[in-house]
């Protein structure tokens, strides 16, 4: 069985073809960062227009490179939410049109669930991830910062989330405030490596003193902006101290979630999880707690269609009920 996945939730146009026996056959991605960088963040209308331009050529390329024909595709999966409404609608319209023309099933995939389960993309058997449940998922992306109790495939409880900005959003805003471009994650983490700054706790670790598993990053953003404006620290030092602050915050909350649920099995996903210092710090903490931590392969941390096709295939194989209606859910919770 082969499934074609479509990802258009934000500013990445993704198309992937996934086979239930052979795994990922092809994974196409067009990143629009260059079109948004001068604005310091994603401009929704530009994002939708770029999806429109790139999506059909990417499908052609994916089919050609994997030597597939449309008749080899057994189902379509697309990101139905959460995301930017205009961007989601491009994927939805194309997905439903293809499914209608080819007379094959269409599966609406939740983008957050796709990030959460993306560590399974490269497993030999698509159901191998079932052994991983139950676990705690830390999803850190441009749009979301969430802690999820993943009880079984399709059964999730959000146990903590950001009350304001996501961590990725703040990283991108800080980079833009420094005039360093968008997206900021890789830029700031490289810059942080150049710092010899030894100061501790220059920036707050927001909401870590309360018992809540929720996050709040907007105060941290304001503190960083204030420090930049004061010109007291070099850009490299700002990057280092800021990185330490958001990483500490994520590690403290993840530890609290594991202790609260007495579940020491952590899975980390989303674009921000490609950060190597976050990975090593979480690894050290979870090892101290005698737990296990899994990270998604760097290739699949940021937005991609492989995770959409993969979760679509799981849904289809599990024969769980899924909606066939043409819908997008910009605020769809996991
Ligand atoms: O998952 P993703 O592609 O998008 C959403 O679904 O929102 O994540 C993009 C985010 C951006 O904010 C980007 O700056 C951040 O991931 N990011 C990183 C790193 N690489 C990407 N943040 C910190 N360190 C990195 N190495
Ligand atoms: Zn994402």
From TrEMBL:
It comes from Buchnera aphidicola. Residues 24-310 form the Gcp-like domain. Binds 1 Fe(2+) ion per subunit. The keyword DNA-binding does not apply. Keywords: Acyltransferase, Cytoplasm, Iron, Metal-binding, Transferase, tRNA processing. This is tRNA N6-adenosine threonylcarbamoyltransferase. Required for the formation of a threonylcarbamoyl group on adenosine at position 37 (t(6)A37) in tRNAs that read codons beginning with adenine. Is involved in the transfer of the threonylcarbamoyl moiety of threonylcarbamoyl-AMP (TC-AMP) to the N6 group of A37, together with TsaE and TsaB. TsaD likely plays a direct catalytic role in this reaction. Its EC number is 2.3.1.234. GO terms for cellular component: cytoplasm. Its main location: cytoplasm. Gene3D superfamilies: 3.30.420.40. Belongs to the KAE1 / TsaD family. One of its GO terms (biological process) is tRNA threonylcarbamoyladenosine modification.
């Amino acid at each position: 069985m082969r499934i074609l996945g479509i990802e258009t939730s934000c500013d990445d146009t993704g198309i992937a073809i996934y086979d239930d026996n052979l795994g990922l056959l092809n994974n196409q991605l067009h990143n629009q960062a260059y079109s948004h960088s001068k604005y310091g963040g994603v401009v929704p209308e530009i994002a939708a227009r770029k999806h429109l331009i790139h999506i059909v050529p990417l499908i052609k390329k994916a089919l050609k490179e994997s030597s597939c024909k449309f008749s080899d595709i057994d189902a379509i999966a697309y990101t139905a939410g959460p995301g930017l409404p205009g961007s989601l609608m491009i994927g939805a319209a194309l997905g439903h049109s293809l499914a209608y023309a080819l007379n094959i099933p269409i599966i609406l995939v939740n983008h957050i669930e796709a990030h959460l389960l993306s560590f399974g993309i490269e497993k030999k058997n698509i159901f191998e991830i079932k052994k991983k449940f139950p676990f705690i998922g830390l999803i850190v992306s441009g749009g979301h910062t969430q802690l999820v109790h993943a009880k079984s495939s399709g059964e999730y409880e959000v146990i903590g989330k950001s009350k304001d900005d996501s961590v990725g959003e703040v990283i991108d805003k800080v980079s833009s405030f420094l005039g360093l471009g968008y997206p900021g994650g890789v830029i700031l983490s490289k810059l942080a490596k150049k710092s010899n700054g030894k100061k501790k706790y220059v920036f707050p670790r927001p909401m870590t003193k309360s018992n809540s598993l929720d996050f709040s990053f907007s105060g941290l953003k304001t503190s960083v902006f204030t420090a930049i404006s004061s010109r007291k620290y070099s850009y490299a030092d700002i990057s280092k101290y800021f990185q330490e602050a958001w990483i500490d915050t994520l590690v403290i909350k993840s530890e609290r979630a594991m202790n609260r649920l007495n579940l020491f099995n952590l899975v980390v996903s989303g674009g921000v999880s490609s950060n190597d210092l976050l990975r090593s710090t979480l690894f050290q903490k979870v090892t101290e707690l005698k737990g296990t931590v899994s990270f998604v392969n760097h290739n699949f941390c940021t937005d991609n269609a492989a995770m959409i096709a993969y979760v679509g295939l799981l849904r289809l194989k599990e024969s769980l009920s899924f909606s066939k209606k043409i819908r997008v859910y910009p605020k769809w919770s996991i």
